Amino acid sequence: MADLEELFRWLHRHPELAFEEAGATARVRELLTQAGLAVQDGGLPTGLIAQVEGALPGPTVALRCDMDALPIQEQTGLPYASETPGCMHACGHDFHTAVMTGAALRLQDMRNEIYGRVKILFQPAEEVATGAQRMIDTGLTDADCYIGIHSYPAEDPGWLGIKEGPVMAAIDRFQVTLTGRGCHGAQPHKGTDPIPALAALVSALQTVVSRNADPFAPCLLSVTHVESGSTWNVIPEVALLEGTIRTLNAGDRAMMRRRFHEVTEGTAAAYGVKAAIEWFSGPPAVVNDAALCRLARKVALRCGYRVGRQEDTLGGEDFSLYLDKAPGIFIRVGTGGGYPGHHPRFSVNPAAIAPAADYFAQLAIACGQSSADE
Ligand code: NI
Question: pTM value?
Answer without folding.
Answer: 0.93
